[in-house]
DNA sequence: TAAAATATTTAAGTATGCTTAAATTTTAAA
DNA sequence: TTTAAAATTTAAGCATACTTAAATATTTTA
């Protein structure tokens, strides 16, 4: 299947399962930087290939086949991120950009070899779980998004979900990396901001950030 | 530039510089599994982009720009082959097939990281030289393919380019190993066969073999 | 060197994956 | 609840990278 198709089903999966956002064509279009018309067009085409269910004006819903394709692409993406992070001195943002291209040009065989070389990792460098060969995510995710974390509790950063370079630069500068220990000082519910302590520094983060930083309870 | 364009200029370079074969559209078409018409079409298009010089019914000639693009793609191909060979237990044939896809989705940055990780290798697993960052091949490869070797001359085997077990078994049995001294007795140009002497034995090899055995002059 | 074979080119057409513009439907607001 | 705004869909069109078929040029061979 083509790169356009793979990216289309991947985006539906990400919006639907991962972000619980609307999967109507316009939303897909925004993510893929194409027009709404193009997204509608593609949706109708893919429904004939049994990759998704399309009803006019309704959100797009992946079929089992479509979800399998999405998870296969996501698996390859996360394996590439893991490998590049392991081998090379590159920023998470750069690694993400490379993986975004490589994921579509990778045989199942190569994906398996990458996985084996890395010792079949369960998570990529962002903390996102890597689907197995059958497209199944076997890990149970107990993480909470920072914007919903409990005041006064201590957590460990488990995932940084973004493809924005400035975000990663900011995180790196301020010690917001996977595994870092942080304390939620205060949730300002009216302004949607969160005050945290990380590495003895106090930071005030707005929701753009606290919605994409995931935490696990500190034990 | 698109995958189709990259493969087009790469093929011209390979036919012209590496194999000294004809670069008329039909030959390119055969390598790329497209029709002659498509190749002619592409040739005219790429000439307007200053990647090659196209004159009707004449062989295609890469411009400096086109050659640079070709060498950049070849660099990435050979770096990928080197990395995959280094990391994974995969046949040279499989590695080649993966590299054929990955070469078009690799930033210059990533190519440089791969090169650095491997200690800036000068040759890939096939023995082919890897162009440097500027597209320059700094090693001087003086080897000739056996099918084009000169009758009556004596050579030394420098490379056996295959991933076929039976080929290697045959070579081993008959003393065709790296460094072995051989004499080219006769090139049968009509039947595309070559008669050689190696370790006092006479062998008659067909082009399947003589196209993948490389020789250096014996001094 | 003329005819036959082969290659190249031109022309017309197709699938993919987009675009813009206009029509339609849904959603949100007054 | 009617209207305005926003989103979706339809329609027409475009670029890329091919295809087939026919015309033309080149090469080979007899």
UniProtKB/TrEMBL annotation, chains A, B:
<keyword id="KW-0805">Transcription regulation</keyword>
<dbReference type="InterPro" id="IPR022687">
    <property type="entry name" value="HTH_DTXR"/>
</dbReference>
<dbReference type="InterPro" id="IPR036421">
    <property type="entry name" value="Fe_dep_repressor_sf"/>
</dbReference>
<feature type="domain" description="HTH dtxR-type">
    <location>
        <begin position="1"/>
        <end position="63"/>
    </location>
</feature>
<protein>
    <recommendedName>
        <fullName>Transcriptional regulator MntR</fullName>
    </recommendedName>
</protein>
<keyword id="KW-0804">Transcription</keyword>
<dbReference type="InterPro" id="IPR036388">
    <property type="entry name" value="WH-like_DNA-bd_sf"/>
</dbReference>
<dbReference type="InterPro" id="IPR050536">
    <property type="entry name" value="DtxR_MntR_Metal-Reg"/>
</dbReference>
<comment type="function">
    <text>In the presence of manganese, represses expression of mntH and mntS. Up-regulates expression of mntP.</text>
</comment>
<dbReference type="InterPro" id="IPR007167">
    <property type="entry name" value="Fe-transptr_FeoA-like"/>
</dbReference>
<dbReference type="InterPro" id="IPR001367">
    <property type="entry name" value="Fe_dep_repressor"/>
</dbReference>
<dbReference type="InterPro" id="IPR036390">
    <property type="entry name" value="WH_DNA-bd_sf"/>
</dbReference>
<dbReference type="Pfam" id="PF01325">
    <property type="entry name" value="Fe_dep_repress"/>
</dbReference>
<comment type="similarity">
    <text>Belongs to the DtxR/MntR family.</text>
</comment>
<dbReference type="Pfam" id="PF02742">
    <property type="entry name" value="Fe_dep_repr_C"/>
</dbReference>
<dbReference type="InterPro" id="IPR038157">
    <property type="entry name" value="FeoA_core_dom"/>
</dbReference>
<keyword id="KW-0238">DNA-binding</keyword>
<dbReference type="InterPro" id="IPR022689">
    <property type="entry name" value="Iron_dep_repressor"/>
</dbReference>
<dbReference type="Pfam" id="PF04023">
    <property type="entry name" value="FeoA"/>
</dbReference>
């Amino acid at each position: 299947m083509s790169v356009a198709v793979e990216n289309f089903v991947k985006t539906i999966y990400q919006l639907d399962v991962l972000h619980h956002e609307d999967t109507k064509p316009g939303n897909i279009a925004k993510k893929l930087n194409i027009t709404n018309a193009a997204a509608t067009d593609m949706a109708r085409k893919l429904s004939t290939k049994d990759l998704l269910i399309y009803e006019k004006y309704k959100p797009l819903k992946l079929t089992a086949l479509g979800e399998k394709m999405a998870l296969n692409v996501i698996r390859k993406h996360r394996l590439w991120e893991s490998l590049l992070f392991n081998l090379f001195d590159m920023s998470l943002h750069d690694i993400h950009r490379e993986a975004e291209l490589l994921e579509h040009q990778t045989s199942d065989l190569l994906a398996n070899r990458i996985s084996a070389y890395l010792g079949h990792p369960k998570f990529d460098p962002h903390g996102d779980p890597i689907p197995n060969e059958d497209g199944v995510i076997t890990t149970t995710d107990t993480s909470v998004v920072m914007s919903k974390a409990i005041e006064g509790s201590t957590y460990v950063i488990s995932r940084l979900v973004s493809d924005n370079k400035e975000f990663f630069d900011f995180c790196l500068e301020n010690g917001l990396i996977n595994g870092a220990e942080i304390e939620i000082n205060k949730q300002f519910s009216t302004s949607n901001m969160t005050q945290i302590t990380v590495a003895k520094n106090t930071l005030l983060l707005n929701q753009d950030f606290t919605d994409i930083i995931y935490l696990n309870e500190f034990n």
